Amino acid sequence: MRSMDINVKIRLIEEYHLDLVDIECVDRMKLSDEIINLIMSEDSSDVIDKYTSLKNDESQTDDTRLLAARLTRKPSSIELKLDNNWSDDEDDDDDYYGSMPLNNEPPEHLSEDEKEAWSQAHEDEQASRRDDEKVFYQRLPIVKKWTQEEFNESMFSFMWENYPTLQKGYDRSTFVKARNGYPRHIGVGSRSWLVPRGVWDKIDTATEYCKEEINKRFSELEANSVGVWKNEFVQWMRQEGVSKATKSNIRAFFKSRNIRVSVMTIDKIKDLLD
Known about the structure:
Blueprint: H1 6-16, H2 20-27, H3 33-40, H4 47-56, H5 62-71, H6 94-97, H7 112-144, H8 148-162, H9 172-185, H10 197-240, H11 247-256, H12 263-273
Helix pairs in contact: 4-5, 8-9, 8-10, 10-12
């Protein structure tokens, strides 16, 4: 893996139309050399197929596959009209961009009812952005004063209460979703590029703390629940018509309960039933 230098960021802005919020997120990703080389490549032939291949490659990092999925549709291949008149050509990718012009006026081809609905949606969006901006400038001075311990406690409480799946064991996809939602939860997500590096460092440290704490709490739960899970597994065997307490069947039992346990717990349950 390698960090993203300024030339890659510029390329993502100019060629792929990512904004500063996107760039801030991408800058924190763990990306493979393959995707960075592809972003910087001047060879545009089969670029979509190449990104699709990376997206589907399970040997790549999750971050690499997510970014590849975002880049499979390359905005630079679509011509934007500076005079705000959209082309009628069938090749224009209206499904990707919608029909939103570059100014604040609704597109001329809409009916009067559609223009009214467009204007209302636009007004609501602007109001939401103003609200987000107000919250950001209220919250940022407060968040900047938080200690590392306050970040740790705040993030863990947010994850534990809002993503109860994590109480059944660490799950990467759920954890990433919780981590990505945390900045907005504390009021600074709408202007993330204005958040000082020191705050992001504390969020990163809190992220690692939460991961360790979730694993620690579930390890304690495992240790105290082996006997209960053993009895529930026996009952599950009867219900499913399973005759042998194999490790494969024990794993199937936990999968049916959406519980992630360690190999050690599976071994303990098997030993208790042998």
